[in-house]
Design a protein that fits this description.
This protein is of the alpha+beta class. It is about 25% helix and about 30% strand. Strands 13, 14, 15, 16 and 17 form a five-stranded antiparallel β-sheet that branches. A four-stranded antiparallel β-sheet has the order 1-2-3-4, with no helix packed on it. Strands 5-6-7-8 form a four-stranded antiparallel β-sheet, with no helix packed on it. The termini are far apart.
Length: about 400
Amino acid sequence: MATGQIIGSPAVSGEGTKVPSLIVNKVDPLMDKAFGKTLDGRNLFSAAVNYIYGGGGVVTNYFSIDPNSSRIYVAATAPDAEDGTEDGRSEMGAIYAFNLVDDGNGGLEFKELNRKTFQGGTGATPSLSADGTRVYESDNEGHVIALDHELNELWRVNVGEPLVGSITVAPDNNELYAVTANDVFQLIDHGDHGTLNWTAELNGFDGYANVDEQANALTATATANGVVVMIGGGKNILGNTIMLHMGMGLLDRQTGKLRYFAEGREDSVAMSVVAADGSIYVAHGPMRRAVGKAFYPDLTPDVIGGVSRFKPIRLDLLARDAICAAQARAANASTLDQVAETAAVSTDSRQIKFLITQAGSGIEQAVSDGDMTPGDASSLRELLAQSLDSLAASDLASSATTLNSACEMFD
């Protein structure tokens, strides 16, 4: 067992997201009545808001570990003096790299390897590329920052407003997804620079009564066939979206347009989890909807917390998306150098196998539900089996061709 301490100082910054006292004063009593106060007697809502936006904290999120090197990355504040004023508070953020090393006494200790400081704090967990060569972080001035594994800055892109969650790194196509209090952005890492590719179309509540504003409400989750997002709909007070309704949607990865959407019951400050059958699970923390309830009690259902599951209702479409995503991944993997890019090829092959397994389960249920004929199901199973045989033989080109034939069956 080892213990360590980050040398940063409590955060203070003039930037970042602020919650007006008018809102805090109305929501604190509502949340305390529904869920009680914190263990140390503080108001639940204001304590959570302070933590989420980094107020007074040193580390306000989680750490990340590179599976290849076991290096530990922590986003926190910088030491007090590095902002130019020794006042017990830090106006700068920092990302630290640690290793666990032998302390000489039969135990372990944390050894700081590198540190990168930047203007503005951060409350986001560091995000890593699959091969551990890239670390992505954000500051509260709206920058997405890419660093190498030694924490040398490679590039930064300003999305126009502070991020409110960790950056999502897709396993392919060098895609990144950044979320703010309003939008979801797709960025592309080109190696020596990054570009902003699209801003999401968040219009799931179009046509709803009492919905004048729509905005992002959760960290994005990249999947093989899209990007899972939560959308909030409601009113605008003092420049803030007051969310009365919440729902889950799937964005198109190429365009950012909304493909599917379903209204839900509750808010979340966690993240969505996608199961093998295409279900979406969300743990709830009704922070924003509590504000809606406080200001519009007659338009907003009671806050309840809990966990929700959004289930797929067309398993033939799930099978289609899984097969077509597997085909795209196999086609991409077939272009890679099988020796020089072994890790990337192995990652693609594992994902292809998972997608084929997911498609097989979807096919069985689709036949049972009457959404696919037994004849089509039999043809698809045969093609998927052939693709797996090619994959086992490391013949990615043949696997991609067979999967393409399966994908075209849905046209």
